[in-house]
Design goal:
Length: about 425
């Protein structure tokens, strides 16, 4: 369990909080590239780490991420006209470029230079893969661009989605590093979901619901190994890399695409759950891509015109008790992503971790919490750059493998858990 002050340290991410300042050390996903599809398209409101921001794409294709509100009298620039190289406030015509610099104040003489004194807060916004990434920390400490494999493979090999999750980022992320729940919560989906079914590893998940966990440190975070019984004298290992602060990659199943997540705080009570699928050595099939767009696997169907899941707390996640009784879905909620999200949101916006009773299968969660707290304090007290900022920490893979009982999963870490261009994932 955690004391209240520890829970507050981990869950509060506004500007000026230790964890908020730590998140601001990283390049984080901000928007899907599809949200700003064309030059001079409509701007997009976005809230990240407690800050209300506005993203737009100007006449030259340059991306901007700026304070949502006009410096004049606080009008939301979402109402602005995106035209001729900048965003113009419709109230009095003040205009801003993609860096937040005011370039026109129509009521003031140009020779006064007044507009040159006005600049909104802004952050860099870059496109890598199908994501627009931002860095919200000090400009003089901007790290190199991220190098996650899923964002660097050719476009035909990858797919990314995002969804609004109505709880704190930490309890969502902790579900991503908890492999023990798969044998229960997702048991109805392993052999029916088109992005999961057919893998030999599924039978090990279903036949052994008591995994043994072995968690080891790596430079950027942790490797979380879950061991289940396989054939005589062998174990089935599922190894999840967790890279600080909130990246996880789910161990693969057969030749299905590999998938994973980021959980990025919107504010202390909401987060963006980013989900990606990719294959290191082949294009996604039409069937796979169609399934992802339809909300299968770790993706969701949306309320039309939004990134809110169609199954959400307002409709009890479309709970189906008959499906629960039959075992079609173990919890009665359809879809792997919403099976997770429904239970994580059921804890409340920020779970009270002082009431927990943790067990051995929670070792990955326990170690991740301690690494996060140590890193946030080291940054605050000594200015130490946290793990996961260095792009070399991004070149990781998950793995699923059957090993002899006398062989540790760490013995295969260099080959199976590291990105090797042109080499497929290690999978069962």
């Amino acid at each position: 369990m955690l004391r209240k002050e520890q829970n507050d340290l981990l869950t509060q991410t506004d500007l000026g909080t230790p964890m908020g300042e730590m998140f601001r050390c990283y390049w984080i996903p901000a928007l899907l590239a599809e949200e700003l599809p064309d030059n001079d398209c409509a701007p997009v409101r976005i809230k990240l780490l407690g800050e209300r921001l506005l993203a737009f794409r100007d006449s030259e294709g340059r991306y901007g991420l700026i304070d949502e509100f006009c410096a004049h009298r606080g009008v939301s620039l979402w109402f602005g006209r995106n035209e001729q190289g900048g965003l113009r406030c419709p109230y009095h015509g003040w205009k801003y470029d993609n860096t937040g610099q005011c370039i026109e104040v129509p009521s003031e003489p140009k020779e006064s230079g007044y507009c040159g004194k006005i600049k909104l807060k802004s952050y860099p916004l870059i496109k890598i893969g199908d994501i627009l990434w931002t860095y919200m920390g000090p400009a003089d400490k901007q790290p190199p661009h991220p190098e996650w494999e899923f964002a660097l493979v050719p476009a035909e090999q990858t797919f990314t989605s995002k969804r609004w999750q109505e709880c704190n980022w930490l309890q969502a992320m902790e579900g991503g590093i908890d492999s023990s729940h798969v044998s229960w919560l997702h048991s109805g989906s392993l052999n029916s979901d088109p992005l999961f079914k057919g893998a030999r590893g599924n039978k090990y998940n279903m036949s052994d619901a008591r995994p043994f966990f072995e968690v080891t440190d790596m430079d950027g975070g942790l490797y979380i190994g879950a061991r289940r019984n396989a054939e005589e004298g062998h174990y089935y290992w599922r190894i999840t890399p967790w890279v600080m602060p909130s990246f996880t990659m789910v161990p693969p199943r057969g030749d299905h695409p590999v998938h994973g997540h980021f959980w990025i705080p919107i504010d202390d009570e909401n987060c963006w759950a980013w989900s990606f699928d990719y294959h290191p050595v082949r294009a996604l099939t039409t069937g796979e891509r169609d399934a992802m767009k339809a909300g299968k696997g770790i993706h969701v169907a949306y309320v039309p015109g939004t990134y809110r899941p169609a199954a959400n707390k307002d409709n009890d996640y479309l709970m189906d008790r008959e499906a629960q009784r039959k075992g079609t879905t173990y919890s009665g909620v359809e879809g792997i992503a919403m099976q997770d999200a429904s239970l994580q949101e059921s804890m409340g916006p920020i779970v009270d971790r002082s009431k927990e009773n943790l067990v051995s299968t929670d070792n990955g969660i326990i170690m991740a919490r301690h690494r996060l707290m140590r890193a946030a304090r080291a940054l605050k007290d000594k200015g130490v750059t946290p793990p996961g900022v260095d792009p070399t920490h991004h070149r990781v893979r998950s793995a699923a493998i059957v090993l002899p009982a006398d062989k540790a999963y760490t013995d295969i870490a260099d080959e199976a858990l590291t990105v090797i261009a042109g080499k497929a994932q290690t999978s069962v």
